[in-house]
Amino acid sequence: MDRFIKPPTDSMKKLDALADELRRRRYNQLGYPFDQETSLSGFYQWLVDTKLCDLTLINVGDPYKTQWDMLHTDEFERACIDFLATAYGFGEDHWGVISNGGTDGNMYGVYFGRKALSAKSARPPILYVSDEAHYSVKKLGDIQNIETRTISAHENGQMDVADFERKLDATRPALVAIAIGGTFKGAIDNQKEIDAVLKKANPPAVYRHLDAALFGGYLPFLDDSEAREILDAEKMGFDSVAVSGHKFFGLNEPAGAFICRKETLSHMQNNPVPYLNGVIPTIACSRSGFDALKLYWRISTTGLDGYKAQAKAVLKNTEYFRNALEKRGVKTWVNKFSNTVIFPRPSDNAVHKYALACNEDKFWGSLSHVVVMQYFTPDLCDSIAEDIATLK
Prior knowledge:
Blueprint: H1 9-24, H2 41-50, E1 58-60, H3 74-87, E2 95-99, H4 102-118, E3 126-130, H5 135-143, E4 147-151, H6 161-167, E5 174-179, H7 191-201, E6 206-211, H8 225-230, H9 233-236, E7 240-244, E8 256-260, H10 262-265, E9 286-288, H11 289-327, E10 340-344, H12 348-353, E11 357-361, E12 365-371, H13 378-390
Parallel strand pairs: 3-4, 3-5, 5-6, 6-7
Antiparallel strand pairs: 1-9, 2-8, 7-8, 10-12, 11-12
Helix pairs in contact: 3-11, 4-5, 11-13
């Protein structure tokens, strides 16, 4: 079959019209943290040149397995996980997998956490999560039938640790989901204060999972040692972390990574599958083999220095955009180390033009936010700020 065969003419017209519309609006998706300059043309050209685009590539089970005869990209999946594990301070003590995105990474965190806690205590664990954390965590607690306690948040969106202490049951294992960048306000939960409460209460067992979907992309690459420490497993003692690939790391479709300690993986080593050569610790048996290649391409073409430069530029442009709004009379709020600028909800025309995320906040009323990503420039910031301030 001709690998360049195209759909019928009418279908192609519809597809081309969609492509034109999507390209036209690529820089108008400001309420959601996507990098609209993914620089993947070379990757797709390579797929065509090597004819890999005509293959099916599926990674099955543990990417660290040593024997597997089917077509796979395990080697490159491992390379991506190892790169991220180093960035997150795990050293050699890590295991991980490329996930289908932030929610899938949180699914691993909740599932692996529950299994690890169940191995240490006969009593069922309780999942604790801030009401400003990503909605997926509470949903996953429901899916996995885990008792979930929602912790209040401060005005800035950070978990209220005093409320956590009040709601913590010291007689049962604690599975604590910690937001490293709340979904709407971009606040970072205070791990040291959370740990102090846990040490004081001393529950039978503790598992800490970090949801770092967006901030996990740039915090490890900032010059500020305080920022880097937040996602340093050796210093902070967390057990696992989930990060998105389609946010700061610039993949063009949902993907991500889940990384945990090897000790956590040991609690998943059961129920071997003979026809798959052993234990399948992953939640999904099959994953995209192309995601591993794509993330490897992005890491290889960007490099450590590239990520450092991008991280610095994102926060610099965040401050520029905030100032651009303030100069035009728009009140703003930005949390420390955050690239999310919060402000009163503007006109519906501005909301729809830029696909702004909006929320009703119990402290501040009707809000919107803009997530500043790599493609932002000072000129773009000024243009957006002008529309937010003046569009009726």
